[in-house]
Predict the structure.
Amino acid sequence: MVALTAAQRARDAIGALTRSVADFPTTGVIFRDLTPVLADAEGFAAVVEALSEGFEVDAVAGIDARGFLLGGAIAHRLGVGVVAVRKTGKLPPPVLACTYDLEYGTATLEIPASALDLDGARVLIIDDVLATGGTIAATASLLAQAGAAVAGTAVVLELDGLGGRAAVESALPEGAAIRALVTG
Ligand SMILES: O=P(O)(O)OC[C@H]1O[C@H](OP(=O)(O)OP(=O)(O)O)[C@H](O)[C@@H]1O
Ligand SMILES: Nc1ncnc2[nH]cnc12
């Protein structure tokens, strides 16, 4: 029997275990809950491997909150450190901040303004879901302000029809990778 690749194993787990919930957190949104995928040992391992594959970077940025779970594991696999990109009010000043629109509201993300040395660092941005792209675009903007070079972004699930890929393409440097394990 031919062994499945990490991407195939990840897609199988995502297909089997993702839960779709109508009208959460607001009416009209179909919320895609990846919690069961990440809670499954084989699913989590396959997702982490498939998101990490081929990236050579100096740091991983994991986005609050679900991106933290993946970002830490991916950074460890790649042998680099992880930067937690926090929702507003969690980090002590001074911070760099960026406010953006989501599928269901607005939010602000922050990173430390001076406590990290990201100047020239190649950074991979990790999150669970790409929807409108606002979250990843805001993260890319914060990292650029800190002097980092965004090497790419990788997510588990890209939602169709919300313009997220185009938004992220215009926010990332030319040639930066945009990887989604499943689109739908
Ligand atoms: O592409 P976008 O439209 O920006 O949406 C994607 C973001 O939305 C979700 O996070 P959310 O802000 O709901 O926060 P959470 O991770 O704390 O649940 C998801 O985890 C992504 O971070
Ligand atoms: N529909 C959705 N499901 C899960 N996470 C999301 N983030 C933004 N939109 C989402």
Q: What stands out?
A: The domain at 56-183 is CATH 3.40.50.2020 (Rossmann fold). The mean pLDDT is 97.
